[in-house]
Design a protein that fits this description.
This protein is an alpha+beta fold. The protein folds into 2 domains: 133 residues, Jelly Rolls (Sandwich), CATH 2.60.120.10; 73 residues, Winged helix-like DNA-binding domain superfamily/Winged helix DNA-binding domain (Arc Repressor Mutant, subunit A, Orthogonal Bundle). Helices cover 41% and strands 25% of the residues. It is built from 7 helices and 9 strands, in the order αββββββαααβααββα. Strands 1, 2, 3, 4, 5 and 6 form a 6-stranded antiparallel sheet that branches. The longest helix has 27 residues.
Length: 220
């Protein structure tokens, strides 16, 4: 048996038949940075339930003009059910999913996962709870874009990274920060320069050092 499967949140509530089905159908794949896993940009339309073991994935939507809006990022230990959107009739928009850092991912194919959802209430509850959590994140992102100035958005992003990693050093380029905050690199560069002048951060090549967390919090 795949040693990762017993770590799934709903595993203990599966019947032996359901466990056997997961065991024979699930696969662990390795994906290089830059590969698209889901959507019109080159990925599949319905991959299945994903459990990220290492690396990082980015979920985003693409406008008709070609603008990308980052919805959320997934790292080691996270799960993704939007990649099984063909079995979630409530999901009506096209989500793209790409690999931002070389990743290892456990995949339960959509056909199998759909059967688990139909037969097991624990899998169904897990799926809809996770989907609700992701949509809450999406709504927060949209609120940031529509209602907040970029200084608040950037401060929020830096603080979110600090709380996510527990570290005051953020190893990202300005281009990556722009991608994550749904802005242009030039705008990010100007605001980083302003934050550095105000003593809130220190900027080095490929690294942002958070110097004044309270000051950043006051901006939000």
């Amino acid at each position: 048996m795949n040693e990762i499967l017993p770590k799934l949140p709903f595993w203990s509530n599966l019947s032996q038949e359901e466990k056997d089905l997961c065991d024979v159908s699930s696969v662990t794949n390795r994906y290089p940075a830059g590969q698209f896993l889901l959507g019109d940009c080159g990925g599949q339309q319905c991959l299945g339930m994903l459990h990220i073991l290492s690396g990082e994935l980015r979920a985003f939507i693409l406008s008709e003009e070609g603008r990308e809006i980052t919805l959320f990022r997934l790292g080691a230990g996270d799960y993704c059910v939007l990649s099984a959107s063909c079995i979630l009739s409530q999901i009506k928009f096209e989500t793209q999913l790409s690999v931002t850092k070389d990743a290892e991912v456990l995949v339960i194919p959509s056909g199998v996962y759909g059967k688990l959802m139909e037969s097991n209430i624990y899998v169904r509850c897990f799926t809809y709870e996770l989907a609700t959590e992701r949509f809450s994140t999406v709504m927060w992102v949209m609120e940031q874009i529509i209602f907040f100035g970029f200084d608040k958005r950037l401060a929020n992003f830096f603080l979110a990274e600090y709380h996510r990693t527990g570290k005051t050093e953020i190893h990202m380029t300005q281009e990556e920060i722009a991608e994550s905050t749904n802005s242009a690199r030039e705008v990010v560069a100007r605001m980083i320069h302003q934050f550095a002048s105000d003593g809130l951060i220190e900027s080095r090549r490929g690294v942002i050092i958070l110097k004044d967390l309270t000051g950043l919090q006051n901006l939000t």
